[in-house]
Amino acid sequence: MATTKGVSCYSFQVELFDVLFLTVGMSGWRGGSEEMKLELLKTSVGRVRWVGWVEGVSWLVLLFVAMPMKYVGNDPSAVKLVGPIHGALFVALMLVVGIAWLEKALGFKQAVMVMVASVIPFGTFWIDRKLARASD
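The structure assignment produced for this chain is given below.
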């Protein structure tokens, strides 16, 4: 378990996910039971997959809903709402990827692939499938 100045990375991640559960919730994520979804969060790679999926959804909402509303409909309110949420989720993804890499749950190549995929629309869904196959 990696620690920084006496702070456990795992406890930081648990607090981060508590906040994400309250703001985003987990309902509807790839089906399955709540127990199965919570089981996914027990591993570093599972946390990367979960945050990646939520970040990917926020990226698509920003690109295909909020941005057209701003530039076609002259209504920037959706970007003002979705933009900061997506930004926080992007930072959260980079943090959990870094922590997973430090814990040696992800190799350097996998960590870089997740980071690159996160800036490509639908990229996080593609990398989620690759991570799921690698962990099976």
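Interim note for the steering committee: Residues 3-135 form one domain. The first strand starts at residue 3 and ends at 4.
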